[in-house]
Amino acid sequence: MRKSDIRYPRATTDLRPSEGHIATKNSSNVKYGGHRRERDVAYMQMSPLIVHKKLTSLVAQGRNVTRRHHGDRTRKLWSRPVQRMAEPKAVVSKMRPARTWKRADKWSRASTVNSVERLPSEILMKILSYLDAAALFSMSHINKLFYQLANNDALWNKIYTAGLIKRKKREPICADEPLLKTAATEVQDRAAGYWRRRHFTSVAAYEMNKWKSNLRPISLHTGMPSQTERVLSNLHVSWELTVSDQSGRQCTLEPSRSQFCETCVTLWWSGGGGLPNYGQISTLQLHGVRRIALNCPGLKKPGWRCLMAKLDMEALAESAQVIGQDRLVELRLLQPGIIVGVWRDSSSVAFVMVTLHFHRLLERSSQGSSVCPYVEPIFRSPFDDIDPEYGLHGYQLHVALYNSACTIMSRSFPQIFCRRTQISDGLIQLPAISSTIISQHTRLSSRINLPWSCEALQGTVKNCCIMSLTLLDEFKTPFWCVGSPVSMEREKTPVSYDYDGKHFLIHYCDSDGQLKMKLVWMKEQKQLFVISLVAYVSVCKVNRHFNRNY
User: Fold this and answer.
1) Whole-number average pLDDT of the chain
2) pLDDT at 432
3) Angstrom distances, CA of residue 256 to CA of 228, 286, 309, 359
4) Smallest Cα–Cα separation from 285: which of 376, 358, 354, 343?
5) DSSP string covering 376-417, please?
6) Which of 132, 144, 242, 528 sits at 20 to 30 Å (Cα–Cα) from 486?
7) pLDDT at residue 314 tops 70
């Protein structure tokens, strides 16, 4: 039998179902079940050569041919004939008009908050009861509804009571134990917000007692606590400057930078357009800020502001002393420890610098009120009626000179004293370095200057620096503590046989005493030497402290 004599079943190209044909439901890839299945079987019985010729002719006639996969076999199918188009016509795009509203995403934050707000208040209170203090404080900043719910006294009473129980397990003696017994019964009897404030106050007191013990180690060199910077950092103590102008407007600024040394911390506030002109400032207020450590990033943590200094600029405008200047700024000393840098070509403020001594700095920064500063307790030495010169000997003096770049000088002078016959002009003289004893003369590590920076500008004021003075009595108790910028001035003295260079004087004075430091410039060594250092203490201060009558 020849190959041409073989007859194959002829396939129809009309794939439409016959009239009355019902499509099968179980066929997912075949639109018309029975008719197409018979056609597929017929084509699968053809030889590959005939199938190829059929496909080629169909493509030439303009029919779409596609492939479908069924199991492990690949079937070649073709659809209904497609009419050829002479030329494609230009298609005009029909753009859908832009919507003026946008459907809220059901997973967006706004829709989530709105759906939560529609819950009953009882359910919301039940949800908030599982939160801690940090989460509850953060929830109060969402909106007005959550502010009212998160400040509920019952919630904060629960948190306060749980905190007391937790601290009571750590400490056998709890100062708030009477409040712990009545906390559950006095929720409604207290004013609104009482338990919230009570919780934060108790947490602050607990942290204060915990870290205050680290202030006990005293440095033998300075006489001050050696861990002051660490304690201030762990208790989240900072400082703010509030400036008021003559029109009554106020602005509160945080320090742009700070610098800690052995016995002092220096704070800088840059002007940057946030401060009024020097002549328009009415008051300057320095506040210490103590904040509670809460895990709520992006929010200001709860805390307290304590007034440390308040200056009336109208009264100090005339008495302000210019202690130095360069080609850009002029330094004006308002009071010991506070200077204002003023641009020389205008009356605007470039920066404000404040120096704070470590003596009771933690108490002054956290234990006062917003309108009244911390009052230091009066300490009196034991009475002594045997020693005729009681209160005139056994002193220890520590003096340091530094700037924002380095420490210029840091020395301690133990066992300095004053004879009763040396008291004059209401001052007790305590010499530390004598001009006649050359072995006591001290060389400075660098020249005396004060670098400053403000935004993109910076400079250096010559013959100015920051001085720290700490005077301890014979019981190693701080007696006189000072931290303030000082200036060095040229002194006209007779010719010295020991030193032939230029002589300078640093003179500090306040209500409690004075300090005089004489320096000389050595041309050969190109260095400054301290040839005399004397501290003068007020007789009234000594009489009050030692209960004497000098």
Assistant:
1) 80
2) 96
3) 21, 14, 19, 23
4) 354
5) PPP--PPP-SS-TTTTSS-EEEEEEEE-SS-EEEEEEEEEE-
6) 242
7) yes
* DSSP-derived 3-state class of residue 305: strand
Cβ atoms 408, 446 nearer than 8 A: yes
Specify the DSSP element, H or E, that contains 43.
Answer: helix 33-44
Model confidence at 170, in pLDDT bands (50, 70, 90)? low
Q: Which residues contact 60 (CB under 8 A, 6 or more apart)?
A: none
Residues in the chain: 550
Q: How far apart are CA 502 and CA 522, in angstroms?
A: 8
Rounded to 10 degrees, the C-alpha dihedral 432/433/437/440 comes to: 100
Residue 239's Cβ-count burial label (10 Å; 0-12, 13-18, 19+) is buried
pLDDT band at 74 (very low <50, low <70, confident <90, very high): very low
Residue 514, amino acid: Q
Strand partners, 107: none
Pairing of strands 427-433, 503-509: unpaired
Q: Which range has the worst mean pLDDT, 43-52, 132-141, 285-294, 443-452?
A: 43-52
Number of H-type helices and E-type strands within the chain = 13, 23
Nearest Cα neighbor of 454 from 233, 285, 256, 201 is 256
CA distance 346 to 339: 17
pLDDT on residue 30 = 41
Residue 330's H or E segment, with its range, is strand 329-335
CA distance 156 to 539: 54
Whether 468 contacts 357, CB under 8 Å: yes
Q: What is the pTM of this model?
A: 0.74
How far, in Å, CA of 548 to CA of 542, rounded? 7
